[in-house]
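ok, trying the design again with the full structure, not the truncated one.
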């Protein structure tokens, strides 16, 4: 089974840090979590950061460059998002996602993803 599960969210003051984790609790290769999205006010998920399944190259949205870092622990099939210098505008529900195929680049379009976690709330107070 593909079961993506996020953890590590919460409430933090502006300027603070959080680290999100995402794991395929089903332990399948098809459930390889590679990418973080966030959703504001029920709109289409916005790309945040990802790691290519082939080669491990990373990509970050312009809005988070210099503040967020995306990484993987391949032995644990776990995806991380280290979020520093958080701003109130980072407040959103964050999702990890996976595609059933492999690429050597980060897919930015959420409509191309096959598997999604349940999402986890990140709230940043001013």
């Amino acid at each position: 089974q593909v079961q993506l599960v996020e953890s590590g969210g919460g409430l933090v003051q502006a300027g603070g840090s959080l680290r999100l984790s995402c794991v395929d609790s089903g332990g399948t290769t098809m459930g390889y979590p590679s990418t973080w999205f966030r959703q504001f006010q029920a709109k289409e998920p916005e790309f945040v950061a990802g790691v290519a399944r082939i080669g491990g190259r990373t990509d970050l949205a312009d809005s988070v460059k210099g503040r967020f870092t995306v990484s993987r622990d391949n032995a644990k099939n776990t995806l991380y998002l280290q979020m520093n210098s958080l701003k109130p505008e980072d407040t959103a529900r964050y999702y990890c996602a996976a595609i059933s195929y492999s690429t050597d680049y980060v897919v930015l379009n959420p409509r191309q993803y096959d598997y999604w976690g349940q999402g986890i709330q990140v709230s940043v107070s001013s």
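Keeping the full-length input from now on. The chain is about 0% helix and 45% strand.
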